[in-house]
Specification:
With 213 residues, this protein is of the alpha/beta class. The chain has helices spanning 2-11, 23-36, 50-67, 77-83, 97-104, 117-126, 149-160, 176-180, 191-194, 199-210; strands at 14-17, 40-43, 70-74, 87-90, 109-113, 130-133, 165-167, 187-189. 47% of the residues lie in helices and 15% in strands. The protein has an 8-stranded parallel sheet.
């Protein structure tokens, strides 16, 4: 599975992360993002009991599978494995990449966060399959982190070489062009889709803005 998933990850451009919201709304948003052409859908929910989170993960896995999108679970390696996800994204407070790889073997793609080229290289050395880097712009979700801007993310992408780097943090239709202007064609969004009046159309527009073909 991982060879195919790695190939799809290399081709991916738009990465949509779900918000903390009632499960039925998360399902609706994920389905809209899938219809709109999201390449990756990540389940990120901090407020659900683990049984509910697993049920939601399985629902989103079905949605992603039906559209050909990669499905990622945030934080929880066990939930990712039990739901049949393609991968897991780990933050600095989660299981280490090396530990996650020992648990998951080659069954999961493993993503990490990096806000400097040095952190990116360290994560890659530990086995990260892709990176989320930012914040690209100011965002209330990560208000405590200093903004590194498009140029900072471009430096990380250059250091990462062939490992995909997705810009994250405050990205929407009004500023996505600042990323593509410095050659960045991969982006993660949350509010740009979750708070849109028409999430499917918003996803489609964002995906088109990233397409370099």
């Amino acid at each position: 599975m991982q060879i195919a998933a790695r190939s799809r990850m290399l081709a991916a451009q738009l990465y949509v992360i779900t918000p903390d919201a009632p499960p039925e709304h998360v399902v609706e948003l994920a389905a809209a993002a899938a219809r709109g052409g999201a390449d990756i859908i990540q389940l990120r929910h901090k407020g659900l009991a683990r049984g509910e989170l697993l049920m939601l993960a399985r629902n989103l896995r079905e949605i992603a599978s039906s559209s050909g999108a990669i499905f990622i679970v945030n934080d929880h390696v066990d939930i990712a494995l039990l739901s049949g996800a393609d991968g897991v994204h780990l933050g600095s407070d989660d299981l280490s990449l090396a530990s996650a790889r020992r648990v998951a073997g080659d069954r999961l793609l493993i993503g990490a966060s990096a806000s400097t080229p040095a952190a990116a290289l360290a994560a890659i050395a530990e086995g990260a399959d892709y990176l989320g880097s930012g914040p690209a712009f100011a965002t209330p979700i990560k208000s405590e982190k200093p903004v590194i801007g498009p140029e900072g993310i471009a430096a990380i992408a250059a250091a990462a070489g062939a490992v995909p780097v997705f810009a994250i943090g405050g990205i929407d239709e009004s500023n996505l062009g600042r990323l593509t202007a410095v050659g960045l064609r991969r982006a993660c969004v949350i509010r740009a889709v979750a708070e849109a009046s028409d999430p499917e159309s918003a996803t489609r527009r964002l995906r088109a803005m990233l397409d370099d073909r």
